[in-house]
Design brief:
Layout: H1 2-20, H2 34-51, H3 56-68, H4 72-85
Length: 88
């Protein structure tokens, strides 16, 4: 039980660290509705990831947007993926 709590805290710390990092440029804003802009950014990242599955920066960026969109479970999966494919 304690092990899973520690693991959760570590994941949360990594998520917050990755969230605070600024990498890449923000998506182009073509809509005045922030929810629409976020949805479009996530769709754009899905397409980029489909063509460059080995780029950890894309997973990191999508995780940050997923956290903004209140989807922490999906964000955590992307963070884990980014960590697993990052060069050692």
């Amino acid at each position: 039980m304690a092990n899973s709590a520690i693991r959760f805290i570590v994941y949360l710390a990594v998520a917050l660290l990755l969230f605070s990092c600024r990498s890449g440029t923000p998506p182009k804003q073509t809509s005045r509705n922030p929810a629409d802009t976020l949805k479009m950014a996530l769709e754009e990242l899905d397409q980029k990831i489909a063509s460059r599955e080995s780029d950890p920066a894309l997973y990191n960026r999508r995780a940050r947007y997923l956290l903004i969109d209140h989807q922490p479970e999906k964000a955590l999966k992307d963070i884990n993926k980014a960590i697993s494919i990052s060069p050692k």
